[in-house]
Known about the structure:
The structure holds two protein chains of two kinds.
Chain A: H1 4-15, H2 17-52, E1 59-63, E2 100-112, H3 137-154, E3 159-160, E4 166-172, H4 175-179, E5 184-187, E6 201-204, H5 206-212, E7 226-228, E8 233-240, E9 251-254, H6 258-262, E10 277-281, H7 287-302, E11 308-310, H8 312-355, H9 357-365, H10 370-406, H11 414-440, H12 444-451
Parallel strand pairs in A: 3-7, 4-9, 6-8
Antiparallel strand pairs in A: 1-10, 1-11, 2-4, 2-10, 5-8, 6-9, 7-8
Helix pairs in contact in A: 1-2, 1-10, 2-8, 2-10, 2-11, 8-11, 9-12, 10-11
Chain B: E1 2-13, E2 16-28, E3 33-37, H1 44-51, E4 59-64, E5 67-68, H2 74-84, E6 85-88, H3 100-110, H4 115-128, H5 144-155, E7 162-166, H6 174-189, E8 193-197, H7 201-206, E9 209-214, E10 217-221, H8 222-230
Parallel strand pairs in B: 3-8, 3-9, 6-7, 7-8
Antiparallel strand pairs in B: 1-2, 1-4, 4-5, 9-10
Helix pairs in contact in B: 3-4, 3-5, 4-5, 5-6
Amino acid sequence: MPNEQGKIIQRRFFSRFLESGLLVLAVALGVGAASSGLSLLMYTREYGKNMLSLPAYREIIISTHDNAEDMQTPVMEKPVQENTVLTASDLEAAELVPSIAYAYVSNESRLHFINLNMLNMSAPAPEDEYSNPPQDNEFEERRAAMEENIKTAQEDPSIIFPDFEDLKGHEVTTQFFDAWEAETAYGSLFTDSDLTGTEHLVVLGWDTAQLLLDEGDDPESLLGKKLLSVDQLYTIVGILEPSGQAYDGEYFSPYIDAAARAGSTGGFRLRGMDTQLRFAVTDPGDLDSAADQLQEWFSTRFGENQIVISNPRAEAERLITRNTGISVLILFLSLAGLFIAAVNVSNILMSRALRMKKNVGILKALGASRQKILGLFTSEALTITAGGAVLGIFTAIPLSNAMQNALELRNTSWGYILIGVGLSWVLTMIFSVIPAWQTSKIEAAQAIKGEA
Amino acid sequence: MINLKKISKQYDLGEVKVNALKDVSLSIERGEYVAIMGPSGSGKSTLMHILGILDSATGGEYLLEEYDITRLPDREQARIRNKHFGFIFQSFNLFSELSALENVMLPMSYAGIPFKERKDRAAGLLREVGLDHRMLHLPSMMSGGEQQRVAIARALSNDPDLILADEPTGNLPSDKGNEIMEMLEILNDKGVTIVMVTHNPEQGKRAKRVLQLRDGVLYRDERRLQEAIDA
Lengths: 452, 231
């Protein structure tokens, strides 16, 4: 409970509720804007730093498609225009570039499961023009084969029937695991000898394994189990340790070269489908020179302009530089807002203190030291700025989220918002203490005489 | 108790320098009842503020119990004002946000007296000045006479050695002013030293000693004259 001196300020605060409320609001807006600006800049820097530390940003991607990542469109719908076909044998380019530590193939792929729901699949309605291919014998034959497969699979306890339709993953060669420092929590990784296409293996990311597990089951129980896709039966040989990276939610199967694939029963990946080659360096500073050397090698091998070389790091750095610039501008504007708010709050507090000038003289006559007077008015400033800072958090959160979304940065940076609020509050508090400091220096006699 | 030696106070107003007090020397003993009189601008209030350490002299020495208090740090001067002096002002100067009880408790909070003790003591003082029925009232709900009685209770809260009263009846009707004067006399009879600034010659006569100021100069000290005649 405040003492009598504190009660004076407390009751003045509430008796001028509208004025006090506006002061708190002004601080809240200033602190909210400045803290979201500060947190945005700090988060942008951290996000950029973390992003560039990922293995994906120490790689050069070689592909024949302009958009090297665009592999999700069903292959049958993708027009194949290029004549150049990359194969795993082209990874030998790495031998000519000493700075390249790992070279591997990585193609986006998807496992489409055959599951029990498919047995209930009815024939498409005749009036459905889009999805209704002609009902010919081929459709019926495929359906019959599928039913047969499912019935057979149901009798095999080692086959898993997931309750979802498909899984996203990559077909990779073995150096992928080295480049991404991916290790197994259970089971093992596949090896070069598994790239022949004779046996279809799959290594699951940690989150993918959790999706396939029944509640309470040990992840290790998945080892040796099989996944029935529309083209293959895949055997689970390993589960990767959780990494916090995107691949936790994926699967990895051995990349099978076109030659081997031609002889396999699957044949899902056709000849024209793009293969991505990835070359990873240890020191990101070597990326540019490595890219130049690879460009030369592939130009010699396939001719000019036949392949696309992508350097994700350079793209990421451009994005980070742009985002940092925008963040600095936002920070500058928000700090200007905070400064204006703080100066106004300081002026209004000074005006409130001057209205109490005579009271300051009386308090001194009654025994208040300069320090006590300073404490009195500082407590008022503290109440207003702390109230504003708390409200500022609620202003900063949506503001910060909106700005992060605009810059395509995910997650809410709570820690940075709180640091931003703290720093902005300290700044506002400094401005607010100035009137308290000046008021504490008022001479008692002058204060009493001046208004007496 | 108090010994002022050649106290002067000069206000610097840019090109003009105003001498509010010129070499004022006087001593005040415990238990005295002193009235400071003089026309407006004679330096009465300035002298009173210097006596109460609310203002500092630009020349001379102020000895309180033989100590030169003008050289003490702010915190120590504040402690002396709190523990040894009590102030009564013409316009009462109560805090409008605080009740009568809280106004009286305020100086005791600076002395570090616990809440319960200061509340009990403040209630006792308000009873002494006849305001036991007004303890929880705000100053705005009280008459001028009642407010000044609260101010007297406040001045007495830390049991001071010296009461400094600046025109204590200036804003009161004569009957209420008389009540206040009687209270001060009772306090003086109990041994409290009183220094009062007044314009009113009648009130001046009720003091045991009258100091007359003109243009910042102490030109008459009536007790001294009486003592000289007695001698």
